[in-house]
Amino acid sequence: MLKFVILVSLFFTIPTTPQSILLENPSFEGQPQDATTPTGWDACGKYSTPDLLPGYWGVKATPAHGKSFVGLIVREDNTWEYLGQTLQQSLEPKKCYEFSLSLAKAIGYSGYSKAARIRIWGSNSKCSKGELLGETGAVDHAVWKKYDFILSPKKAVKYLVIEAYYTTETPYKGNILIDNCSSLKLCARA
Q: Which of helix, strand or coil describes residue 74?
């Protein structure tokens, strides 16, 4: 009996760290429509909002997961779209987190036809881009592909931003589709 009491006492005194941080609405589910931010996410780009797809702007792609996905564009006038979310728990500095999402490029998106890339930012305020945590190269495929990231913030991160961005220094009209975000899991080596 004494061994049992000691084991139970040890269990309740060992600090525990959650192994993953869940995102709200990670697959961007909602009623598709243009200029609409999915529930749980904030529209962050100047002068525009993401699109909840398919069905608008000539985008007919099938979702990677669920019934809808989000589309972001980059423009010739040096503006682009991004969205973000307040995390349920901060990412801790100098810890490693695994994160993934599915990406594709729409063949038709009302003339926004060039490939874009994704940049992932972390900060402590809504829509702020404090620290670049990860990025892709050009996403130039129409078939959904899973992209894996290792995020290791230097400072605590309470807010996560997913941003469409150019692949060249000269602005152009492009698009990127996003679906099926994972939770943020502590790396196995953490």
A: strand
Q: Name the residue among 169, 170, 15, 162 with its Cα closest to residue 103.
A: 162
The reported pTM is 0.88
Q: Which of 128, 139, 133 is closest to 175 using CA atoms? A: 139
Tally of domains within the chain: 1
- What does the DSSP 8-state code read for residue 22? P
β-strand pairing of 117-123 with 82-91: unpaired
DSSP β-ladder status, 174-179 and 51-53: unpaired
Residue whose entry in the numeric block shows the structure tokens 């995102």: 23
| 12 Cβ contact list (under 8 Å, min separation 6) | none
**Positive or negative: CA dihedral 94, 156, 27, 186:** positive
CB 164 within 8 A of CB 115: no
Q: For the CA atoms of 60, 164, 129, 137, what is the dihedral angle to 10 degrees?
A: 130
Q: What is the CATH number of the domain that holds 118?
A: 2.60.120.260
At 107, the amino acid letter reads I
Let me know if residue 6 belongs to a domain.
no
Token reading at 103: 């990406």
Is 16 part of any domain? Answer: no
Read off the pLDDT of residues 113-148 as tens digits, 9 standing for 90 and up. Answer: 999 999 999 999 999 999 999 999 999 999 999 999
Q: How far apart are CA 148 and CA 53, in angstroms?
A: 23
Report the residue count for the chain: 190
Is a pLDDT exceeding 60 seen at residue 111?
Answer: yes
